[in-house]
Records
---
Amino acid sequence: MGKEESPQVTRRTTRSSSSTPNLNNSIQTAKTNNPQPLTLNDLLFGDKPISFSDLISSFPGRDIQILDLIRLLGPLNTPTIPLFIYGSTSTGKTSAVLQIFRHLNRPFVYSSCLTCYNPRILFESILNQLLRHRKDVGNGYTSAKRCERPSDFVNLLHEALLNVVNNLKGQMGKSTSKKSVRLINGKMVYLIIDNLELVRNWDKSANILPFLFKLYDILKIPEMGLIFISKTSPDTYYSDTGYIEPIPVQFPDYTEDDFRQIFMRNQANLKLYSSFLDVVLKPFCRITRRVDELSAAFSPLFKKYCEPLSDISISPSEEMKRRLFSHLQPDIALSLNEIFRVSSSQSSSEVEARKEKAKRKGTMQKLGGSQPLDEVDFHMSTSAKYLLISAFLASRNPATLDASMFDSTGGLDNRKRKRKSSEKSLELKETAEQESLMKGPGTFPLERLLAIFQCITSVSECSLDEEEGNNGLGVESGDSGLMSDVLLQLSSLCNANFISKGSSCPLEGSTRYRSTVSEDMALKVARSLKFPLSKYLYRR
């Protein structure tokens, strides 16, 4: 349950009918064929509550976060300040929140900005769940209320929340003689908005995010709680519009011990799988900290690991562990060279083509042939290549030219009319070039590096989308987004001495970096990505 962001248990009818499709739910299919009126119990999660011990055991390494969330939600019927839950992808944020509400047996409304990709769909998704409205053939798959403007949403939401709260208060006064009915705890209703960082993609006016943060102040309903879930930290959402800042709760990346507890769960032969993790866990954790990526990589490797065994239920000896490691070692190197993608797994033909390409490269080196200029002689993930190019541009280009280099036209216009230079200007230019050569590459802060990285990857994404038959290399753009953590890639580049990390600047107070690669190396990396580096490189 703690392995992925999406929950693994049965989801509610309300959520499936208003926001996302419900999968792997035969009971729900029967209800769709014979729809029943939705009740307040559809605002609960799961068929029945779970115990606290089951909740903790479902999320290894998340004890502190779960206890913090339960403490912040407070006792029954306690008003709650908005919460802001953030962390990297696949750190168990959404799953933990949903299971906490299942443990507490409290009603909530869940909407994801991944499926609710514009304000109208987001507003109507929340209202449909509060009004217990199911989209079906009878109503033409329409929403209970059509709502496009934030002002209309506030009025409709206020009315719907008061209606639900009054019904919850009435249910509290009823007797509990019917054992088949699952009674709801308390009269609080919580709004959970997931994938909040995606609002920027479809909110061109930049009004929805401040509106959502001020929703708690606008409604002034003490029985309503508000929870935001995001992949980015709260610092990226600060504005000067004024609102009650939500309480942040961070879900950090899993450690190697956490991964071991996660992957050891539900294993038939614990000793055999533990010996497998001793081999693969450490090298793979240097590349990614995502559970879904590691799970996708470990599944075929474990099958390969067990091939020499006639009986996988035996406990391996030390001699057998060494033999299994020798059998698996070539496949580990191939798997590490793959860029991890979660939703779009590579076909067998693509894997075979990549292996054939590696064989041809090895044959050329044995015959003394030269390597093509467009290929680098070492493995580097696509996001690391873009990050290396960004660091090279940040070191070579003046910071004052970033706005003109990375504008909407995609770089400086090299076709500008050239003026005839005087002898004095030529001398000054030559002197400046000599001084620049003596000084070497300049330093830059992390903020500038990330800004350039975002600009060049967005430009590359747009250009690749125009090509037919291309799978795309966009950074975090939908299902084909790269899964590499940028900060983790930066740390790897620093450890490999492609980027040097200096001390903190006394004026800015932030750490500064410097690119150590040559221009030939940067051009070779750019050619492997088909990225026009010379278009963005400032020539004095």
---
Amino acid sequence: MLGKNVFENNKGVFIVAQSWPCMPYGGSIAITASLRQYCKFFDDVVFICLGKDEISQNAAETFPTVHFHFIHVHKKSLTNRFLRSIFLNRPAITLGMGANSVFYSIVEILSTYLTKENLYKYVGIVEDNVPGIHLIKLKERYPNMLWAFKSHDVLHKAFSVFKSTGNPFFRLAWWHEIGKIYQFEYALIKTADVKWAITKDDLILSEKCYETNFDGVFDSDIDLSRYENIRTGKLNNIIYLGSADSRKGHGIKMFMKNVWPQLLDRYSNRIELTLGGRQTEIFHNQNIRVSGVGFINDEITFLGKGAIFINPQVAGSGLKLKSIIAMAAGKVLVTTENGALGLDGIPGKHYCVAKSDEHMIQIISHLMDNPSYVKKIALDGQEFAKERFSRQAFSERVQPLLIDYWKKAF
């Protein structure tokens, strides 16, 4: 196993992110996997989180040698940010995160490590897109430091669904916002010395959109041992785990509108839907057999409630880690063509892909009526998740990227 022992020591890395590691949501899972790899290559790891919550005890215990720093970010409502961004040359999604006070706090932290004696000791990595708002100024301030950008999404595509939904003012506002998101991402990617995408599909899309070459795919692993003994759950309980915010929740809203009523008509009191994740409580309605339970602290218990897991995502990119976790937990994943991007499995064998609302109704109905097929695809999907997203497989994929990064920097 290669690592920092192959190279000379006393090299460090600054990581700027918007999520702490060791938290139960997708972005944090990816950061946890990345941080574990960074710790193999660098003697001094400085992690700077731009967010609203202090570090969890779990993160500090899991990574005892990492220097964790926290910069509080105050985000106002999306409406407020939209109105403010009209007069600024920045997208609304970066307001709060992109405040000058946040940048100077980052610089203050970096200055405690960057003395004259070790000015060239460190490199920098920005994890995820929105914190990248600071990358251009960081590169200007530290021109001799090699900066890598790890994209978690292609944001202007992720928000594209809003250009065609809602009232005319809403659509116009989003058309303007998406244009600014594209310009922001374009400048970010052109500034970064090293660029990694989180999936192969994202890499292809990014290279096409931004007319530049990426250095490779830096995806993620998951803690397979955590999900290997989860209950099968009830076949008639369909489960969803994920945020229901304005971007990620669009798919579940369409599912509730176009798919669920048809399934309810077909199966009546023999079917139920359980939704977990931020803001899913807004869908709670026992009259239509829907339980919206809100934020989930224990996804293990939640995943044990049902045998069929849906991800009805209609826009966006990135790595669908909750879908991968569902497969690792022995659930049958039913998703959309968009939701299947980045999974790299075989549709119909490892998971089910619906091409339309009607197709999703057909797939779920077939699963409900064929328990033996549910068992087979669940086992095949689980085996795929174990092989593809194990810690060892992930390490073997990304170590060449980190070796190249190290050689460019030092």
---
Amino acid sequence: MNVSIVVCTYTLDMYEHFREAADSVLAQTHDDVELVVVVDGTPEVYERVVDDYGDRDDAVIACNDENMGLLVSRNRGAEIASGDVVAFIDDDAIADEEWVERLVRAYEEKDAIAAGGKMTPEWIAGKPSFLPEEFYWLIGVTHRGFADGPGEVRNTFGSNISFRADVFAELGGFDVDIGGRKGDKNLQGGETELCARMRERYGRGVWYDPEAEVAHKVFEYRTEFRWLVDRAFWQGYSKRAMESMLTESTDEETNFAGRLLTEFVPSRLYSLLIEPSKRGLLKLIALMIFTSLVGAGYLYGTTRYSGTTVHVESETDEPTYQVLWLRPSRGDNISVRRQRIAEELATHGVEVDICDVTGTDVIGATRKAVVGDYDAIFGNVRMGLYIGYPLARLLRKPFVGTVSDPISDINDLPQPLFNLLRRYEWFVLAHADACSFTYQATYEEARRRGIKGRKLPNAVNYDQFADPDPDAVECARKLLEKDSVDLNKPVAIYVGGLTESTYKMSTIVTAAEQRLDWEFVFVGEGEQREMVAEAAREHPNVHYLGAFEYDLMPGFLAHADIGFCFKDAEQPLKVMEYGAAGVATIAQPGNLQTRLNDDEAVFIEPDPDVIAETLANLAANPVERERLAHNLQRHAENVSWKAVGEEFYEILEEVVA
């Protein structure tokens, strides 16, 4: 079987690399190989090719009259080739000596109509430590998850693919408008479109042999993060274009995306937890960023290839600014700080879209970032900060980092992993256009690091809690009574995220077993939801009501006597809400004592016996309970979201200007 191998080249700068590619073709163990060289409109390159290979009987050389692009050149090479099979390799690649032999075996033994193999990396300037193997396709190398072994695939890489000559001719060759001069210059993937047409016509794909190897030279510029970011975005864009042209063209990408989210990301995360390393963390972060950017490119492609425009919803007719605020995914009724600030910004005509970014939520957030006409991107710790910064830089938007929780919140992670995340977080904050810090300790550390930012504490809509809407109070009463809460007994309440490491849910539940004279009410959502719900089923004085709209929280607190907050933080949001509602608070000693004194809250260790004893004392001394509630309420009266919102508006004006 005669095999013609087409190599296209066009610049003298690549000539020595071209010679290596051509020589590797001529050094094949298969003895019936034809080298076909197409020079794309560069006479001086053509002259050198003729000098080096013109006298060979197994070489055919042609030159385009002008630069026509890779796909036009490949089609011309196939037209002048004489082989039964036409194969393609790039001028920056080197074929293994048994490459053609393996391809021929696929045609003879598998009756293939097209065959290809594995692309391996040849690192010219060293392998980048951050690049995950799942995204090697960005550099033209076969990636993890491409195929489990030999078998039929939709297509292989354009630098390691071949076709029966008659099949290639019947298909009309490559569509020259894919990345060609007449089409969209940002489109990539001519072999994808061709092989999708082949599958539609013949019902067959490309036979993949992982032992048919071609090494692809990975030059230094291809290992730079900025280049890879750009590449990822436009690859996603191209995939959307392919999908619009041929509906079956993205089946394999869909399958790969599924494995990425359900297999590869969890696998890398598990490995990182078992054996923390800087390399592992960088690869995991890069994996998430590249996934987001491919999705962003795909969604951007919908604006051109679907004929539709995505509009961002606005609360005002003519907003002065539009902001995308990225935050961790914690549930619709958790993380209310952003909502309160957004409400205050709205009074200045600022439209704020608040988007979750954890896990698959990042896709929707990226879509908004790319398609929406935003003036700035805000990113809140942790994932909002980690994803928002590179996304803002890619889109050339101002970035504001907001730190509402201290880094110590994740210090239960393995120490090496915690240290790596801490370093990345400070790197982002140091390079952001502006920063805000909720906690004094974090703000002071930022100043020590030379990072400028504003100290903007948690606050409360005082009137909303101090004088709650009667409808909210009545609605909460009905919900409490429906769950058999005895409102004639004192009520201890917890409102917020149900997490063990931060808020000690199991400790409160254990204390409830000792204080049957108290009703324990939990309102919120989180990882400990099932544990709390199970306790509610087992103990008559424990009640888990679920998660509700924020506007209903003042109604629940109106029926409470004590509020719990066992988060060792300087100013947890819920403490101010408890205070404004006139609810005495039991809190954990530590950072909160820098803001409140013993006349404003009861500070005890989060121990079930201590909690039970404290509740007994407060039940027996209602005057003391009222005194604590009154003092905390006076403190809460002095912190407002209006003041915080004003400063955020100033930040926005500064970074946009």
---
Amino acid sequence: MKKGKSKLSWFMKIKIRDNKEKPDKVKVKAKAIVKAKGRGFFNHIKNKLILSFMILVCLIVILGIVSYNLAAANSIKNYEQSTSQTINMVGDYINLGMDSIKDLSIQYLADDDLGKYFKGAYSEDSLRYNDAYKSISKEITSRKLSDKFIQSIHIISPKAEVITTGNTSLSGDELFQGLLETKEGAILNEDHNKELWISEGSYLDEVLELKKSDYVLRYMRSFVNFKGFIIVDLKSKAILDIYSKLNYSDNCYFGFISEDGSELMYPDDKNIQMRAAMNKDINLDNNGYYYTYYKGQNYLFCYSKVGTTGAMVTALIPKSEMVKQISEIRIITIAVVLLASVIALLITFFMSRGIGDTISLLIKKLNLAADGDLTVNLETKRKDEFADLINSVSQMLNNNRKLIKNVSEISTKVEKSAGIVEDISMQFISETKNISSSITEIEIGMQQQADDSTECLTQMDELSMKIDTVYGNTTEVGQIAAKTQLNLDRNITIMNELKSKTKDTNEITEQIINDIQELEHTSIAIRTVIDVLDSIADQTNLLSLNASIEAARAGEAGRGFSVVAEEIRKLAEQSSKASNEIRNMIDDTQARVKTVVTSSNIAKETISQQEIAVLNTLDVFDSMNQDVNLFIDKIKDIMKYIQIIQSNKKTVLSAVQNISAIIEETVASSEEVNNVVEVQLDSANNLNDAFNELDSYATELNQSIGAFKF
């Protein structure tokens, strides 16, 4: 009998002690979950956003640098070609002036009146001699004034007076004999068909009172049928005037170099010498350009040879001057890059600030809830996924508030029930004395029931252990489901970001297609302009042909005009050739543009399909999230029912134990009624103590629930 009583007391104390220890374990586990963990730099959303936008800023900077370098290279290339073309045109223009000087000498050679005068045909007739002298002097003076390339004209013969635009006191014979003693005079006297371009003739400068600085070259040739020389000086000012009209800065230098090395510089700078700046290792063609290092600075050296005279026009352009031309591009590029960077940083700041503030508010409210304050209210003005998250958390807090409230009500009911059971146990003690008289009659049946009660008690112990196992497994499943829900929320956030990036990529692709189509329209417009240029070139070529025909009809008088017509024809052919090359380049560009448009459209369709796939994936995640939420709700219901089963389990175990004790005591009452009654009274007292402990546990449960505000 004492063995049954001790077993009952031991079993109930163990169960009560286990139930007291469980709340502490739950509290520790909850604190472990809520406890904030240290995060690395890349585990913060704000830092990830900033890093993402900084990558975009770096790409924008790289794009600006590449664009600036390409624009600078193209600008320098255009500057080089433009300067080279300008120098070629200057050379052609000066060559045209020198050809006009040659044509003038040919005209004098063919002039019969002039030939008669210098052969001495009028020496016997002073009147005709004077008339011829005046006529020729007037003609060369008029030619000097009308031709801007001519500085002075001198016609010398030993049989007539010198006719010159200069001044001399020597006779024709004296001047002719003195000129024969010079190098150039001896050359012309040996070969009457020879033509010379020299940069200096000191003898003529002295006797004719000429200044070397007034002319850059001197053209000399002899008469074919009689002794005499025709001398024409090329005006220095004419060349300087051409250079002065070129639109270049003062740091740019232009030169005219004769075959013998004499230089004419513009602007005049004694420290700059064109021949010294030339690269002696480069073989010069008719025209071209290259870079040279001169006096500690890089220069673009352009050159163009002037016909067959051996002279050359040159230009020396500092590379720093070309870089100034692209300064505006650099400023615009830097401004655009800075503006894009500032906008990206502002967007990053406001986005990260908005997300950070929302998450901070959510963490603050959840910490209050973790401390037991379930009255917290979560509200937000956002209309994105954070609003859904906050609404879900708010709904979770409301459900927890209702759950704690229900547990509190059940605990109060348990406490009241314990008081009622205590009264019943007191009544049971008084009634036990009356039961002792009937124990003998049911002794045989009670023995069998005692055995059955012992077996039932064993099975109830096993059932209690299985219920505890199910409760623990259900708790773990709930935690796994909660983690699954968090992972789904993160996946939904990532998919939304991917959706936004896909949409931005699609918009950029559409903009690229529009820009390429605009480029195609521009190419078509340029082709139209090229067609107009072809028409102009054809008309120019026809005009040149007509001019050549008219010049041929005019004979010697139209020879100079024939040269001009030939140059116009060449210019028309070059224009037509350039137009064809440009048309071919435009055709190639249009073909490439069409290929790029096709590729861009394919890329656009691919991105659209990706966007649809992202949306479908997002729908799947939303569906999974709803299913997980439903699963968590079901787990909570199961846990609530298991808790009720655990409460009822205690009552059933207690009842079975009491029945077993009563049966054992009833069986023993046949031997010793007084002992049975005494044991029953002790069992009743133990039962009363057990319900007192149950009442104490219910009170402790109410105090724990009181820590929550709801």
